[in-house]
Amino acid sequence: MTLPRALLFDTFGTVVDWHGSIAREWNALARARGIRVTGARVASLWRAGYHPAMNRVRTGELGWTKLDGLHRLMLDDVLAQLGLTDALAEEDKRELNLAWHRLKPWPDAVPGLKRLKKKFVIAPLSNGNVALLVNLAKYGGLPWDCVFSAEIFRHYKPDPETYRGAAELLSLAPQEVMLVASHKSDLRAAARCGLQTCFVERPREFGSKPNPDLGAEAEFTLNVAGFGELASQLAA
Amino acid sequence: MTLPRALLFDTFGTVVDWHGSIAREWNALARARGIRVTGARVASLWRAGYHPAMNRVRTGELGWTKLDGLHRLMLDDVLAQLGLTDALAEEDKRELNLAWHRLKPWPDAVPGLKRLKKKFVIAPLSNGNVALLVNLAKYGGLPWDCVFSAEIFRHYKPDPETYRGAAELLSLAPQEVMLVASHKSDLRAAARCGLQTCFVERPREFGSKPNPDLGAEAEFTLNVAGFGELASQLAA
Questions:
Q1: Measured between beta carbons, which residues in chain A are less than 8 angstroms from residue B72?
Q2: What's the helix, strand, coil split of chain A in %, to 5?
Q3: Is residue B1 in a domain?
Q4: ipTM for the complex shown
Q5: Most exposed: A186, B151, B156, B221, by fewest CB within 10 Å?
Q6: CA B180, B184, B190, B193 torsion-angle sign
Q7: Do B169 and A130 touch (CB under 8 A)?
Q8: Within chain B, what is the greatest distance between any pair of CA atoms?
Q9: How far apart are alpha carbons A122 and A147 in whole angstroms?
Q10: Same-domain check for residues A86 and A166
Q11: Residue where a domain stops, chosen among B101, B118, B153
Q12: Which residues of chain B make contact with A134, given a CB cutoff of 8 A?
């Protein structure tokens, strides 16, 4: 293995705990509004709309739309499904949609990133829009060197333009860049573009629901249980 | 004045001392190679090629070229002018070109940015390419929230796509964004796009040569002598 020069991080699930954070924000709002639907259920339903919504953009059915905009379309679907469309005021919905800007990092994320930053360029490569990623970083203290978003490339992952585009902006060859992710399909798409890959196991990504992406794979450059182990493996 | 939400910083001259840094790197190399041309002269000649080189891209005469590539074309011109084309090996030239990735911040820059970061999104908006800006930040400890480069927009400042593009990526209206720069023409172009403006006086930008951009102007939102004064004026 040749050491990479830059590490790119998938963000939702890999760096931050979206399920627990969204569930908490919903629960606080639901309590205040007297709604009896659990945060765990809303978080799961909301995220279930994620890939279908991005695929509408990826196939051209929908023009370029920031993830904030897609999240809002998905939220409206979830509320309709739950018969809650009129249970929340527009202001509540707008504020709830921004819960995706306030997701808590996994406990190992910030200490691991601080170690890795001393030796490598570190940046998110996420489908989140730039403002979302900047706000997440400020909220969680994520010490990125720069921010790569699907929005910059106007292509959502796993389109190759994202992986190749980030390497090109860093003036690096694809093999000098490693994608770190808890989703095997994301890593496989990056590998097809020539990037190195690191699988991070995040067993609690979906809360108490089973996570389909568990277990090391020989096809990935590295397999780790967290960012501390990643830093140690890369001698950072 | 309405407080901005994000501050964008021109970089060469505004945040970092390109003249002093380039002169020092040249002087060290020249001493080692027995060349008797001063660093101050080389720095001035090299930078004199800056606007003409970018204008070749802005007018379409030259296809999109990263600033690293333009810097190299400019360096080759400078060496030819000085009759030094064969005085340096290719490896020396390549390494010298990367001196633009190692420019020292002005003494007030990092402390001021740290204060400003607590209250605002802070990012460079520079004609430097992304890798150059990331390396500058690592070299000088510039605590950016994210990095905006002409390279992302494939337009060099003062093209309006750069100012408007950065605001759009931040999901902000132009008037919620302030450009901070030591060059009045850059600020005027930003103002035409609706951004707020802050002029920073950097009397030593050109070393001992006179700086044409001195003195406050009523047309700018703010006029300051450094980033500490900027942070105080914005109550950061």
A1: none
A2: 50, 15, 40
A3: no
A4: 0.97
A5: B221
A6: positive
A7: yes
A8: 56
A9: 9
A10: no
A11: B101
A12: 121, 145-146, 170
A121:B134 CB<8 A: yes
The last residue of one of the domains, among A101, A123, A144, is A101
Are A120 and A229 in a shared domain? yes
B101-144 per-position pLDDT tens digit: 999 999 999 999 999 999 999 999 999 999 999 999 999 999 99
The pTM (predicted TM-score) of the whole model is 0.97
Omega before B105 within 30 of 0, i.e. cis: no
Interchain contact, A169 vs B146, CB within 8 Å = no
| Phi, psi (deg, nearest 5) at residue B215 | 95, 135
Residues B182 and B213 reside in one and the same domain: yes
Residues B79 and B181 in one domain: no
- As to burial, measured by CB atoms within 10 angstroms (0-12 exposed, 13-18 middle, 19+ buried), residue B39 is buried
Q: List residues of A whose CB lies inside 8 A of any B CB.
A: 66, 68, 121, 129-131, 133-134, 137-138, 144-147, 149, 151-152, 169-172
How far is A224 from A231, CA to CA, in rounded Å?
Answer: 10
Chain-wide mean pLDDT for chain B?
A: 97
* Cα A83 from chain centre: 28
Of A136 and B1, which is predicted with more confidence? A136
Q: Would the CB atoms of A121 and B129 count as touching at under 8 Å?
A: no
User: Which domain, by its residues, includes A196?
Assistant: 6-17+103-233
Asked if the structure places residue A213 within a domain, the reply is yes
d(CA B62, CA A179): 33
